[in-house]
Amino acid sequence: MENRCWWCQKITKLTGEHFLKKTDTKDLFHEMFFSKGKNVDLIRYSGETFQIQGPNSQRLKLVPNLCAKCNGARSQSSDKSYTHFINSFKKLKNEFLDSNSIDFTKIYVGNWQIQKRNLYKYILKHACCRMSENQIVIPNAIVDFLDDRTDNCSFKIFFVSKLYDEFLMSHDIPSSYKSHLGILESPNKDPSYVVGWFTVFGLSLKYVVDLKHIKRFNNDLQASKSYLTKIDYSDFNFTREKKEGEEAKLFAELMTSLEYFPFKYENKLELYNLLINRKSS
Q1: Could you tell me which of 85, 63, 40, 221 has the C-alpha nearest to residue 131?
Q2: Total of domains in the chain
Q3: Best label site of 38, 88, 146, 248, fewest CB within 10 Å?
């Protein structure tokens, strides 16, 4: 398998994008969790739990498919916009929950249009790394969007608040999640849409990418506010038989059920079809 960067197409040594940024890892698990001789074992990765030794752990990275330049200088502005977004969201979370919307003029003071675009580029970069993992060719329109050459890129971003995270944090259980990548195929079996998300600090950043420009989604880049969905867990029910020595597996199953609720994990297609057809703002 050749080491070709999906972004610049150069054949070179590749690096892995963090699915959970180092800054988020440090905030979630705190430096004391990484003290000598103590590992963190509460990260969830597509329904799996495992141990990490610190924020630089290779287990926190996706499959290497970006060159160092594209994973560094080329995407630095979008990385910074994401970090600023997460830090501001944590401070303004209650206000946004009350209004059912994220106000980007309060997240990014002054140049919110540019910063929001950079945030979306960060999310799309994550999506592209996931697609590359699954041997999906990245459409030229997405690369052009990432390089600020066009706005003609068909995708949707959704912001979803999952309040179960507050319960976990109140019991000193840090929480993060990376979904499986959903691939919807056309009748001739070509990938048509990809759907996925990652969750950090109780906020899911969900994406739907139209690979064939079938829907031509409105990506709401010019909107100063984006809708914030709140998941109601009042009807959530999780019943499993607890077996000795399988606590980690049970915890992973619980988190996956919480992440996909109100849909069952087995009914992913229903969830994906809903996301494709719903409004984002």
Answers
A1: 63
A2: 1
A3: 38
Look at residue 20 and tell me if it is in a domain: yes
What pLDDT digit, counting tens, does each position of 79-110 carry? 999 999 999 999 999 999 999 999 999 999 88
DSSP symbol at 18:
B
- pLDDT, one tens digit per residue, over 208-246 is 888 877 566 667 888 999 999 998 888 888 776 766 666
- Stated as kind and residue range, the H or E segment containing 228 is strand 225-230
Report, as ranges of residue numbers, the positions in the chain whose pLDDT lies below 70: 1, 29-51, 166-176, 185-187, 214-218, 240, 242-248, 264-281
Q: Which domain holds residue 40?
A: 14-277
Tell me how crowded residue 263 is: count the other CB atoms within 10 A of its CB.
15
Whole-number pLDDT of residue 194: 87
Q: Residue 182 pairs with which residues in a beta bridge?
A: 195
C-alpha dist (Å) from residue 53 to 20, 31, 37, 251: 14, 11, 9, 20
Answer whether 107's CB lies under 8 Å from 88's CB: yes
222 to 103, 113, 116, 219: CA distances (angstroms): 12, 7, 9, 8
Both tokens of residue 231? 């998941």
Is 8 inside a domain boundary? no
4 found inside a domain: no
Please answer whether residues 189 and 211 qualify as being in contact, where contact means their C-beta atoms are separated by less than 8 angstroms.
Answer: no
- Nearest to 249, CA basis, from 44, 38, 60: 44
In Å, how far are 18, 95, 117, 137, 207 from 157, measured between CA atoms? 19, 20, 11, 20, 5
Q: Does residue 136 lie in a domain region? A: yes
Give the pTM: 0.86
SS3 134: coil
What is the chain's alpha carbon radius of gyration, rounded to the nearest angstrom? 19
